[in-house]
Amino acid sequence: MKIVEVHHPLVRHKLGLLREASTAPALFRQVVGEIATLLAYEATADLPLDDTGIETWAGPLTVGRCDQSRITLVPILRAGLGFLPGVQVLLPSAPVSVIGLRRDERTLQPHAYYQRFVEDIAGRTALLIDPMLATAGSAIAAIDALKAAGVTRVKAIFLVSAPEGLRALEARHPDTEVWTAAIDERLNDHGYILPGLGDAGDRIFGTP
Ligand code: URA
């Protein structure tokens, strides 16, 4: 599985701000958005361009155009919503497909309680958006659903990833491409990433 840990100094600086427990939700949201933009910039480096003829002040010219109709952005509810606006800064026309997952208490497997994919999703590249890759249960379930709907390529953007989650994702979906601001040390007994940054959803939405 392709895994890119983005070491850009601005990403590392901003991630340090998020790791500070005292960073308040407003700044936390802003910085999450900034890192999302920087990760999305890296993750879109190989998007194909179409040659398009335009008229310039000096006559006709062929320029490259990125066709956003081949992409869909896929935030995983809830925390993925906090990561989405930063990606939309770069891909404002890409349609958004949403998936919400909760754990089935009987099977302990993630179950989609909400799924609204763009109608013509088959054949698109999905940009999966979630701040934290912990056990990877949600990411795997989301990619299962995307592939079942005909998605052919998945690029995933995670703020912080646990090695356990990356291993689990690779075992199930080795064709996924991952960009992350950090691969942290490990998961604790409650499934939180160490050192991580706590509960990303709570910190983004200001819930206790
Ligand atoms: N989800 C979070 O928000 N934080 C973690 O550390 C793990 C999962």
From TrEMBL:
<feature type="binding site">
    <location>
        <position position="103"/>
    </location>
    <ligand>
        <name>5-phospho-alpha-D-ribose 1-diphosphate</name>
    </ligand>
</feature>
<dbReference type="InterPro" id="IPR005765">
    <property type="entry name" value="UPRT"/>
</dbReference>
<feature type="domain" description="Phosphoribosyltransferase">
    <location>
        <begin position="7"/>
        <end position="207"/>
    </location>
</feature>
<dbReference type="InterPro" id="IPR000836">
    <property type="entry name" value="PRTase_dom"/>
</dbReference>
<feature type="binding site">
    <location>
        <begin position="198"/>
        <end position="200"/>
    </location>
    <ligand>
        <name>uracil</name>
    </ligand>
</feature>
<keyword id="KW-0808">Transferase</keyword>
<keyword id="KW-0547">Nucleotide-binding</keyword>
<feature type="binding site">
    <location>
        <position position="199"/>
    </location>
    <ligand>
        <name>5-phospho-alpha-D-ribose 1-diphosphate</name>
    </ligand>
</feature>
<keyword id="KW-0460">Magnesium</keyword>
<dbReference type="InterPro" id="IPR034332">
    <property type="entry name" value="Upp_B"/>
</dbReference>
<keyword id="KW-0328">Glycosyltransferase</keyword>
<comment type="function">
    <text>Catalyzes the conversion of uracil and 5-phospho-alpha-D-ribose 1-diphosphate (PRPP) to UMP and diphosphate.</text>
</comment>
<feature type="binding site">
    <location>
        <position position="78"/>
    </location>
    <ligand>
        <name>5-phospho-alpha-D-ribose 1-diphosphate</name>
    </ligand>
</feature>
<dbReference type="InterPro" id="IPR029057">
    <property type="entry name" value="PRTase-like"/>
</dbReference>
<dbReference type="InterPro" id="IPR050054">
    <property type="entry name" value="UPRTase/APRTase"/>
</dbReference>
<protein>
    <recommendedName>
        <fullName>Uracil phosphoribosyltransferase</fullName>
        <ecNumber>2.4.2.9</ecNumber>
    </recommendedName>
</protein>
<keyword id="KW-0021">Allosteric enzyme</keyword>
<comment type="similarity">
    <text>Belongs to the UPRTase family.</text>
</comment>
<comment type="pathway">
    <text>Pyrimidine metabolism; UMP biosynthesis via salvage pathway; UMP from uracil: step 1/1.</text>
</comment>
<dbReference type="Pfam" id="PF14681">
    <property type="entry name" value="UPRTase"/>
</dbReference>
<keyword id="KW-0342">GTP-binding</keyword>
<dbReference type="GO" id="GO:0016757">
    <property type="term" value="F:glycosyltransferase activity"/>
</dbReference>
<feature type="binding site">
    <location>
        <position position="193"/>
    </location>
    <ligand>
        <name>uracil</name>
    </ligand>
</feature>
<feature type="binding site">
    <location>
        <begin position="130"/>
        <end position="138"/>
    </location>
    <ligand>
        <name>5-phospho-alpha-D-ribose 1-diphosphate</name>
    </ligand>
</feature>
